[in-house]
Amino acid sequence: MTNERVNEHLESTAKVEVNVREVFNIDSDLIVTGFREPGVYVPEIDKGYHFNKEVTLAILAGFEHNRRVMLQGMHGTGKSTHIEQVAARLNWPCLRVNLDGNISRLDLVGKDTIVIKEGKQVTEFQEGILPWSIQRPIALIFDEYDAGRPDVMFVIQRILERGGKLTLLDKNRVISPHVDFRLFATANTIGQGDFSGMYRGVQVLNHAQIDRWNILASLNYLPQEEEVSMVLDQVANLTREYRSKVDAMVSVASLTRKGFVAGELSTLMSPRTVITWAENTLIFDDLSLAFKLSFLNKCDEQERELVAEYFQRCFGQELMLTE
């Protein structure tokens, strides 16, 4: 689809009111605005997704009231997915950008490129993701926000104010944001750096920039029953007959998280890893082998006996560490 057709499609969708209680199964009288029809860049709806009430309301406030929302939480808690699934139910176009070390200022802002027009080479400015997005009804998500390079972060800081304009200094141009442009971010830390060693590469963020985010919500791991239901919903062909096994899987995951907090383990099982374990169990038809391939082999060798003890405690069977 050409840029012209994309622009036309993004601008052609009518608005509609969305009942939060009916759509998100959350006890709230909040009514938010969405788009009537899904279009390009709207994520697919995951019917089995489990919404956290507090985080969902924070995200909805971002969409409805144009607040800048940052989600902080451990890996695998579904921070980016949470924003996407809210956007999916609002039919709101959504883009994700991972702020790894390779993302530069030019990637965000744009740069001059040489193109062929009417048989001649000419220099033309190619917009980066920021000027392209800010002019459209797009929800832009910056993943791994605390891993961004300092020069990149200062570019983003220009648009963090509500209604903040983007200045393209090289082009002497000031871009005003589209009325339906929204900005979100996800991070494992809250800009104070990482002392656990789990998130190497994260940066200590400028406090003035963190202060510009209007809403900061934390997304933690789900309660036991909710995580079990989530795994059953997410893994295809995993019938309800597996519930007792999945319950034990989540119990193992919970023990690794407690062990990590207590300093006994250097890694932990995220909900993503539990889902992977369940999927691999179906592939190999062997729960113990799937556990080794999904998580145990990621652990430090000196910690594997403790992890095997967690397994034995939850499943009532010994886990052989060597064959």
Automatic annotation (TrEMBL):
ATPase dynein-related AAA domain: residues covered: 69-191
Classification via SUPFAM superfamilies: P-loop containing nucleoside triphosphate hydrolases (SSF52540)
Domain Cobaltochelatase subunit CobS N-terminal per the UniProt entry, residue ranges: 17-42
Record-level Gene Ontology MF annotations: ATP binding; ATP hydrolysis activity
TM helices/strands, residue ranges: none
Protein name, UniProt field: Cobaltochelatase subunit CobS
Naturally occurring in which organism (per UniProt): Shewanella hanedai
